[in-house]
């Protein structure tokens, strides 16, 4: 899909506030209502705009401990990888799971209330994930940057 300046501006505005009305959006990007609406609908249909969500403040919800966990598996065949990936889906505290290059297989991001809660999660669920050989946990001390906005200036 080709993007022009209006498409990019629509995406910028929606990334900052997905609750903006179509009238406000069209005014902010400099288009009339109908062409703006058509562009948004096209980007939704093409999967560029995947969903509109509400972003919660984890600290205000008493979920202030973020842990990054490198995972190394015992086996690397397709079935083992699929089993591991399917199993992480059922653990709510795992908010992100990425395959990685190098000597580690996965990087997990876990958000919990406390270190004690993480210890319980580690012992009761994480060490029991299929084919886990090694887990290496790192606790985030301070979040320096947090954005859900993609750098769309060059699309």
Automatic annotation (TrEMBL):
<dbReference type="InterPro" id="IPR011008">
    <property type="entry name" value="Dimeric_a/b-barrel"/>
</dbReference>
<dbReference type="InterPro" id="IPR019888">
    <property type="entry name" value="Tscrpt_reg_AsnC-like"/>
</dbReference>
<protein>
    <submittedName>
        <fullName>Lrp/AsnC family transcriptional regulator</fullName>
    </submittedName>
</protein>
<keyword id="KW-0804">Transcription</keyword>
<dbReference type="InterPro" id="IPR019885">
    <property type="entry name" value="Tscrpt_reg_HTH_AsnC-type_CS"/>
</dbReference>
<keyword id="KW-0805">Transcription regulation</keyword>
<dbReference type="GO" id="GO:0043565">
    <property type="term" value="F:sequence-specific DNA binding"/>
</dbReference>
<dbReference type="GO" id="GO:0005829">
    <property type="term" value="C:cytosol"/>
</dbReference>
<keyword id="KW-0238">DNA-binding</keyword>
<dbReference type="GO" id="GO:0006355">
    <property type="term" value="P:regulation of DNA-templated transcription"/>
</dbReference>
<dbReference type="InterPro" id="IPR000485">
    <property type="entry name" value="AsnC-type_HTH_dom"/>
</dbReference>
<dbReference type="InterPro" id="IPR036390">
    <property type="entry name" value="WH_DNA-bd_sf"/>
</dbReference>
<feature type="domain" description="HTH asnC-type">
    <location>
        <begin position="3"/>
        <end position="64"/>
    </location>
</feature>
<dbReference type="InterPro" id="IPR019887">
    <property type="entry name" value="Tscrpt_reg_AsnC/Lrp_C"/>
</dbReference>
<dbReference type="GO" id="GO:0043200">
    <property type="term" value="P:response to amino acid"/>
</dbReference>
<dbReference type="Pfam" id="PF13412">
    <property type="entry name" value="HTH_24"/>
</dbReference>
<dbReference type="InterPro" id="IPR036388">
    <property type="entry name" value="WH-like_DNA-bd_sf"/>
</dbReference>
<dbReference type="InterPro" id="IPR011991">
    <property type="entry name" value="ArsR-like_HTH"/>
</dbReference>
<dbReference type="Pfam" id="PF01037">
    <property type="entry name" value="AsnC_trans_reg"/>
</dbReference>
